[in-house]
Amino acid sequence: MQGILQKIITLVLLSLAFVTMEASESIIILSQETTQESIEQKLEEYQKIIKNDNNLLIIQKEERFRAVVEKFPNYFILKLASFQESKNLTFAYLILKENFPKAFILEDNTIQRAIASSSNKGEKDNQLLWIAIFSLALIGILGLFSSSLQIKNIIVRHKQMQDKQNKIEAFLTNMGENIYSLSKKNITYRKVSVDKLSDGDIEPNRELIDKKLFDTTRVMINFLRLKSKKVSIIQEKFNFNNLLNGVLGTITHTFEGSATELIFEIENTVPKNIVGDPLHLSEILTELLQNAMKHTKKGEVKLHVSISSGFSSGDKLQFKISDTGGGISDKGLEMLFIPRYTDTEEYKGLGLYVANELVLLMDGELSIESTNSIGTTFLCSLPLLIPKTSDRRVYRLPDETYTQKQVLVYDNNENSALAIKKMFSYFHINTEVISPQKFNLKSMNLSKYDIILVDINNLTKSKITQIRDIRKKQPLKIVHLSSCFSTKRFIAHDYTDDWLEKPISQERIYE
User: Fold this and answer.
1) I need a labelling partner for 254 at 20 to 30 A (CA). Which of 196, 311, 374, 469 fits?
2) What is residue 22's predicted lDDT score, i.e. its pLDDT?
């Protein structure tokens, strides 16, 4: 039965296409009224609906449709013209159908031809016009029926949007109650006399509450600034390496002592100076990296930065943050960007919500790929303004003899070692990466290198002796490599010259 119905619909639509023989746009007929007063009342009713419905406002922004009143000899029509995307057309129709039960979908050029016909042919043609209108309405209803699966998906999407909005409102309510509770406790502690603080029990609690109150208030302010559209994006020239150093400082302080390897892999095409919004870009990277670190107790988190160019889209700054954590379930992905307050008095999803909103404000894109037990990858793409060609490459070595140096990188993490090698390649310095097994071989000759980057805690006694012997005969620079999260203090030895914390930036190598 359904197959026969679809064939009939197809034949009718094809016949209509042959009659019109021109491109058309879809419209929604909301109401037909006999007086101007009643049609203006319907128009006012529509304006109230769209003002209070965020979903309709989003569709209107995409489609740029508008409400129009058409006047006929004996009646008035209120229509929305016009729609390009069938998905937005159907979504708007379903929302407005609740308040305009007689609404139906129509092709724009068809109704215009019918209007012209009614003006020229009198009452008989006017009857034909109504027949045409109701016939097209029937076609629209049948078309909607045949694509019922698509309509169901749109309804589900609408419900998901409503659920998301309800969760955000609940989040704000919980956050407000939390601030009220913390403020009340804070006032109570401050009323306690000084002599009662000698027991050492109340003062620490007060400090804890002060900190928690500050953090909660800060979180709410950032959230509300985004929700109230108080965030403005600026465009200014900044040093990208300095931005990365600032992000690294925040991450290092938060995850001190972590066993996770943090890697920065910056392609050589990424310029030192970039034009954009450094403050909000820093917030985006910080939130994404913090999320990756939280889900990776040990293993690695890598930030890969590159430039993509396109003739139509222009240059874009591409960020890829990948981790080797446990991954995120499908249910977790659905809740990822929705801020919420848990039973353990923690705020979940707020950082990623802020990052996602900032990316959208900067006309960028943020997507996620995750597999259980393998890891998660965030892909962030932002429009980029690159300064003049002469200003792109600024790290230039003072002497060409530096490029003749032979550098050896020995690191337990191969990906970290390869990222360091890429940093050195920016300066056209010949760099070799070696495995721990090969490095510790007795036959391994270190005398052909000028600089060796190595965690000195991994050096065997025989290798230390070999290094000391080589340094007596020729200059060999040993640079100690350590993680930025390491709590071990660097102790200088007679066989070491300098030290570097991973991840390494181009600017640090230059220095």
Assistant:
1) 374
2) 41
CB 234 within 8 A of CB 277: yes
Nearest to 435 by CA among 456, 404, 412: 412
Peptide bond connecting 82 to the previous residue in cis, omega within 30 degrees of 0: yes
Mean pLDDT, rounded, for 395-423? 81
Structure tokens at 309: 């160019």
Quick: pLDDT tens for 74-106: 888 988 887 887 778 888 888 888 888 888 887
Burial of 190 (0-12, 13-18, 19+ CB in 10 A): exposed
Question: Which residues pair with residue 167 across a beta bridge?
Answer: none
Q: Is the pLDDT of residue 505 over 90?
A: no
Angle at which helices 36-52 and 54-63 cross, to 10°: 100
Nearest to residue 251, comparing CAs of 510, 483, 13, 17?
A: 483
The strand pairing partners of 410, in sequence order, are 434, 454
Sheet holding 259-266, edge to edge: 259-266, 298-308, 316-323, 375-383, 365-371
**Distance between CA atoms of 451 and 500, rounded to whole angstroms?**
13
Residue 149 in tokens: 């699966």
pTM for the full predicted model: 0.59
Q: What is the mean pLDDT of residues 340-366?
A: 79
Residues 6+ apart with CB under 8 A from 225: 231
* pLDDT reading at 366 higher than 90: yes
pLDDT tens figures, 6-52: 444 444 444 444 344 344 568 888 898 888 888 889 888 988 888 88
The Cα–Cα gap between 120 and 279 comes to 64
The amino acid at residue 361 is L
Q: Positive or negative CA dihedral for 235, 356, 49, 71?
A: positive
pLDDT in tens, 173-209: 555 556 655 565 555 555 554 445 444 444 545 656 5
Largest alpha-carbon pair distance within the chain?
A: 111
CA atoms within 13 A on the CB side of 255: 26
Give the span between the Cα atoms of 391 and 388, in whole angstroms: 5
Strands 477-483 and 451-454, sheet pairing: parallel
Strand locations in 298-341, DSSP E? 298-308, 316-323, 340-341
Residues 6+ apart with CB under 8 A from 61: none
Supply φ then ψ for residue 346, to 5 degrees.
-120, 150
Q: Are 377 and 368 in contact (CB under 8 A)?
A: yes
Q: Which amino acid, one-letter code, is at 137?
A: A
Bridge partners of residue 17, in order along the sequence: none
**What is the rounded distance in angstroms from the CA atom of residue 296 to the CA atom of residue 300?**
7
Sort strands 430-434 and 406-410 into parallel, antiparallel or unpaired: parallel
**What's the rounded Cα separation, in Å, for the pair 144 and 157?**
17
Six-digit token pair at 411?
């690191």
